[in-house]
Amino acid sequence: MAVPKRKVSPSRRNMRRAHDALGANSYVEDKDTGELKRPHHIDLKTGTYRGRQVITPKED
Questions:
Q1: Does residue 19 sit in helix, strand or coil?
Q2: Structural domains in the chain (count)
């Protein structure tokens, strides 16, 4: 069974966790509608992906 030889200090523990934070979501402006959307995602309002009609648009 693995047992630590020395105590990990809070400073070293926090330095190890420095890269674990989540980054902010990125958004791009849609060329047709001008609305912000996530890249590489289907636009649910129009039902298009990369200029092609993929699904039928949602009815409100």
A1: helix
A2: 1
